[in-house]
Amino acid sequence: MQEPISFFTGFNPNDLWFLGEAALKTLWISILSITVGSVLGCIFGWILHESRFAGGIILAPILDVFRSVPLIIQLVLFYNFAPIVGLDLNPFLSGVVILTFYTASLVSNVARGGIESVDMSMRRASRSLGLTYWQDLFHVVLPIGGRTVFPAWIGVVLGVMKDSALVSVLGYVELLKASQILITRTQEPLLILSIAGVFYFALSYPISLYASRFEKRWAK
Amino acid sequence: MFDYSFHWRPVVKSLPELIQAGLVTLEIASLAMLLGVVIGLCLALMRMNMKGPLKWFAVTWIEIARNTPALFQLFFFGFGLGAFGINLSPFTIILTGLSFNCAGYLAENFRGGFQAIPVMQINSARCLGMNSWQAYTRIVIPQVLRIVYYPITNQMVWAVLMSSLGMLIGFRELSGETQFFASKTFRVFEYFAAAAVIYYVIVKIVLGASRLLAMRLFRY
């Protein structure tokens, strides 16, 4: 009599490492796309504010598309479009590209709000004190407007971090995909999903807590 | 560079099905929003006015909904509850998942709205002989709804976009239908491009309808 073959093995501590590593991957893809996307978004926001033609007619509708089409569709579309034009991208890179543009489209609105929240009279005053346009932008508008929209930016950051879970559709093994792999092997969905949830919570909650503290401090 | 030949014919042929699926998307988003608004209102009130377990229940719900990815929540309702022997249909999974998520986000919006109403108004309503139910339903909630109208509209757009996650749990709304056709004909790019356009149109319709409704509601 042969021993019955077991297809499923239980959850062991090594799997916790696997999940932790996957959480780091989630963190890495989010940090990368949020950093690049935020810089890009600030530039876009500045263009939206400054130029009626380049901003209002060309850029705004394009950015609007990124906000009005589900991220998952964007990812699949780009992943299948890249080979058509001869780009050879792995899931990670296409995920980063789309997440970057997605972040940029969200941040551009935030950045524009920040620039417009600074009083025009203050900017005129700084210009008449002899600051150049760029000095005015970096030393007056950035600190003041930046503080106003900081909570909104944190909101975008948290959103993108959570949305990075969708890159799993392309086959990139981040936290959610890793938990799915483990579920398939161990057949213990509740336990593993709870652990994955704790990891997500641990990534996201401190930031949102910090943001609400920051907001309270500034409301005073 | 460009030796890919596009085949749009199968897409055009299945366009009626796709539009039908788009209606399903709209339907599920509206249902989830309806549930989300009601539950979110209750959660916000519980978080602000209650003490003890009810408050902690609301806080836990809100923080989990806001700090974990929507896809994770869907998986939880799909696979996690399956561990208890509760097997929901894809429709129920996506409806509960979306409502859970929307309720969490809306609760925070509502809380902001409630905090914008001076406490004095409730006191004066009570002085005029209204009981607390009347004071809330006739004085506070109409004002709160006006404040949170635009956040609710935003959330509705998010609900439409998030319903695309149905694709991953096997529900045949717009994305699921698109994937079904894409894997039937291997025309992934074309189908997903069509889906992107339909999503864009749906979002624009939602925004337009909300603007019309706002004109009708907030005439005064």
SS strand fraction of chain A? under 5%
Which CATH top level class of the domain at 22-119 and 149-185 in chain A fits? Mainly Alpha
Query: Which architecture of the domain at 22-119 and 149-185 in chain A would the CATH scheme give at its second level?
Result: Orthogonal Bundle
CATH H-level superfamily of the domain at 22-119 and 149-185 in chain A = MetI-like
CATH architecture of chain B: Orthogonal Bundle
The overall strand count of chain A is 0
CATH superfamily membership of chain B: MetI-like
Radius of gyration of chain A equals 22 Å
In short:
The complex is a heterodimer of chains A (220) and B (220). Chain A has 8 helices and no strands.
Describe the structure.
The complex is a heterodimer of chains A (220) and B (220). Chain A has 220 residues and is an all-alpha fold. The radius of gyration of chain A is 22 Å and the shape is elongated. Chain A has helices at 13-50, 52-68, 71-81, 91-117, 120-128, 133-163, 175-186, 189-219. Chain A has a domain at 22-119 and 149-185: MetI-like (MetI-like fold, Orthogonal Bundle). In chain A, α6 packs antiparallel against α8 (189-219). Chain B has 220 residues and is mostly helical. Chain B has one domain (17-215): MetI-like (MetI-like fold). Chain B starts with 8 loop residues before the first helix and ends with a helix. The A-B interface holds A 65, 68-74, 76-77, 80-81, 83-86, 158, 162-163, 165-166, 168-169, 176, 179-180, 183, 188-190, 193-194, 196-197, 200-201, 204-205, 208 and B 1-2, 4, 63-64, 66-72, 75-76, 79-80, 82-84, 157, 161-162, 164-165, 167-168, 175, 178, 188-189, 192-193, 195-196, 199-200, 203-204. Chain A: One of its GO terms (molecular function) is L-cystine transmembrane transporter activity. Chain A: It is found in: Cell inner membrane; Cell membrane. Chain A: It is a multi-pass membrane protein. Chain A: Residues 23-211 form the ABC transmembrane type-1 domain. Chain A: This is Amino acid ABC transporter membrane protein 2 (PAAT family).
